[in-house]
């Protein structure tokens, strides 16, 4: 959740290789499991070196809002219910 919050604010995300950041497009987060690289990434973020990706972070986060995910879940569940009903009507 914190990584999504950071994206939604446009601030740099520095993380170890854990979801959700590992599935994001390249450049949205700095992913490193090495302590020295992690520290370097934090320093780079603090000095503004990741500011060029701010708009990309904001745009990606805006396409992954809870409202959108809930609507997608409803569509999937509605489709599954219709498919089950059709299967029953056909004798399945």
Plain-language structure description:
The protein is mostly helical and 92 residues long. The chain has a domain at 2-64. The chain contains four helices and two strands. The chain has helices at residues 2-9, 35-46, 54-62, 66-89; strands at 13-15, 29-31. Helix 1 crosses helix 3 (54-62). The termini are far apart. The model has no long low-confidence stretch (mean pLDDT 86).
Low-confidence stretches: none
> Tell me about the biggest sheet?
2 strands, parallel
How many strand units? 2
Share of helical residues? 55-70%
Secondary-structure blueprint:
Blueprint: H1 2-9, E1 13-15, E2 29-31, H2 35-46, H3 54-62, H4 66-89
Parallel strand pairs: 1-2
Could you list some keywords that capture this structure?
single chain; 92 residues; mainly alpha; two-stranded parallel sheet; 4 helices
Brief summary:
By secondary structure, this protein is mostly helical. 58% of the residues lie in helices and 7% in strands.
């Amino acid at each position: 959740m914190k990584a999504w919050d950071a994206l939604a604010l446009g601030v740099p995300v520095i993380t170890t290789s854990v979801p959700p950041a590992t599935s994001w497009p390249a450049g949205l987060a700095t992913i490193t499991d090495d302590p020295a690289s992690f520290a370097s990434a934090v320093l780079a973020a603090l000095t503004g070196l990741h500011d060029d990706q701010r708009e990309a972070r904001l745009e990606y986060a805006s396409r992954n809002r809870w409202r959108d995910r809930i609507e997608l879940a409803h569509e999937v569940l509605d489709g599954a219910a219709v498919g089950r009903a059709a299967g029953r009507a056909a004798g399945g």
